[in-house]
């Protein structure tokens, strides 16, 4: 019998299997692959339930792996390329219908078959031991190649999800049609009936993966779903509920920690993602106007910036000021609007206000308490006084145009 060894080199490494054994292996790879798939069907119930074309794909991968094993025996330095090639020949969607855990189960079954049948193909007795040792090393490479293949697929899906998520957030900001927005959000796992709140501010870095990690890690600790998009230097986050006002405030505060320095604005909470454009629109308008309030808290609700938004020319802010400040005072009657207007004009001095109105100071106190109850703003508070003053001015302008 010939003593020629396949791929023999003067490298000082272990000897190679004989050329005769390699020829027997080349002829036997088809049988090894078929035997492996047959045993998979016997041992793995989920594999039997796969459609025929998917089982054929597994056979193709197994056949390629067996052929590459023969090539690997001749040149072990080709291990990484050959094992990765076994998975590149598979259909692109293989990782979608066979999980990584299931793939490892398939590899384990194939290894068992190879370990039993490969030694029988040895043309010489010393080759039996070499084949047993070689298959153990090669299957280790196969396992790593499988994990690498699934990691690449996961990265590809992650990149696609990130692009889809950016489209959803961009659609929310632009106010896209409800159907297209909800279908894309559903593909990302967003619950359509979940409440939605927009949060906008400066992006913390130029590295999108870092931004995504910072936001998602905080959202995971809070247990709330998020959608996020980076638009230039601006970061837009939409987080979901349901939750009460306190829960939403806490979520906004924690998520705002992922933003860069500068103001962060929270839009109003809306009942569903279909209405999230209202929350995002208010938040965007407030972010543009927040520069007029240097001491604004972080995060600041967009509703707290109605005066600055109205001064910046936001018609939605003007409408909300009229509805929240002017109309309640007008509907209540009892000279409340005149009282708060006079109180602000005299610099918040209660006695001066009473003299101007020719009423007792206690009457002024009572009316100011009613103003606070109806509008949510206390005239004696400096910030609230600013809101009331701008609200009354906007109300007069709106009335002059016949808007109420």
Account of the protein in words:
The protein is rod-shaped and about 120 Å long. The N terminus is likely disordered. The chain has a five-stranded mixed β-sheet, with helices on both faces. The protein contains 17 helices and five strands. It has three domains: 138 residues; 120 residues, 2-Layer Sandwich (Alpha-Beta Plaits), CATH 3.30.70.2730; 81 residues, Arc Repressor Mutant, subunit A. With 404 residues, it is mostly helical.
Essential attributes:
Arc Repressor Mutant, subunit A, 3 domains, 64% helix, mainly alpha, 5-stranded mixed β-sheet, PucR_C-HTH_dom, DNA-binding, CdaR-like_regulators, 404 residues, DNA-binding PucR family transcriptional regulator, DNA binding, Alpha-Beta Plaits
Largest sheet: 5 strands, mixed
Widest beta sheet: strand line-up: 2-3-1-4-5
Strand fraction equals: 5-15%
Assembly classification = single chain
What's the total number of strands?
5
How many helical elements? Answer: 17
Order of helices and strands: HHHHHHHHEHEEHEHEHHHHHH
- End-to-end CA span: 107 Å
From the alpha carbons, calculate the radius of gyration and give it in angstroms. Answer: 35 Å
Report low-confidence residues grouped into runs of 5 or more: 1-14
Describe the global form. rod-shaped
**Secondary-structure content class:** mainly alpha
Pfam families: GGDEF_2, HTH_30
Region (Disordered): 1-21
Domain CdaR GGDEF-like: 175-289
Protein name: DNA-binding PucR family transcriptional regulator
């Amino acid at each position: 019998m010939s003593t020629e060894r396949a791929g023999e080199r003067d490298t000082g490494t272990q000897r190679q299997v004989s050329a005769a054994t390699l020829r027997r292996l080349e002829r036997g790879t088809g049988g090894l692959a078929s035997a492996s798939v047959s045993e998979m069907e016997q041992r793995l119930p989920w594999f039997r339930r796969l459609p025929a074309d998917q089982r054929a794909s597994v056979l193709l991968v197994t056949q390629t792996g067996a052929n590459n094993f023969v090539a690997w025996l001749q040149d072990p330095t080709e291990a990484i390329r050959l094992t990765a090639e076994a998975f590149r020949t598979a259909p692109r969607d293989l990782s979608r219908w066979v999980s990584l855990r299931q793939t490892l189960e398939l590899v384990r079954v194939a290894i068992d078959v190879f370990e039993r049948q490969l030694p029988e193909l040895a043309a010489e007795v010393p080759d039996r031991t070499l084949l047993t040792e070689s298959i153990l090393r090669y299957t280790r490479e196969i396992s790593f190649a499988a994990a690498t293949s699934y990691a690449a697929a996961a990265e590809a899906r992650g990149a696609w999800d990130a692009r889809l998520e950016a489209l959803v957030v961009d659609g929310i900001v632009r106010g896209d049609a409800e159907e297209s927005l909800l279908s894309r959000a559903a593909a990302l796992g967003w619950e359509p009936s979940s409440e939605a709140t927009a949060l906008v501010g400066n992006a913390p870095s130029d590295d999108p993966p870092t931004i995504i990690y910072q936001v998602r890690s905080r959202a995971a600790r809070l247990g709330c779903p998020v959608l996020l998009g980076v638009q230039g230097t601006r970061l837009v986050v939409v987080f979901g509920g349901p939750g009460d006002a306190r829960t939403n405030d806490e979520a906004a505060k924690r998520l705002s920690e992922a933003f860069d320095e500068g103001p962060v604005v929270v839009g109003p909470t809306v009942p569903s993602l279909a209405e999230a454009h209202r929350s995002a629109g208010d938040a965007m308008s407030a972010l543009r106007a927040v520069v007029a309030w240097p001491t604004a808290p972080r995060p600041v609700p967009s509703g707290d910036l109605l005066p600055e938004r109205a001064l910046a020319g936001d018609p939605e802010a003007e409408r909300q000021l009229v509805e929240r400040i002017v109309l309640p005072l007008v509907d209540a009657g009892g000279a409340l609007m005149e009282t708060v207007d006079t109180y602000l004009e005299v610099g918040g001095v209660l006695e001066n206000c009473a003299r101007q109105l020719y009423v007792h100071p206690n009457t002024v106190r009572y009316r100011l308490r009613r103003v606070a109850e109806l509008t949510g703003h206390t005239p004696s508070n400096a910030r609230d006084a600013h809101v009331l003053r701008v609200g009354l001015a906007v109300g007069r302008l709106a009335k002059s145009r016949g808007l109420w």
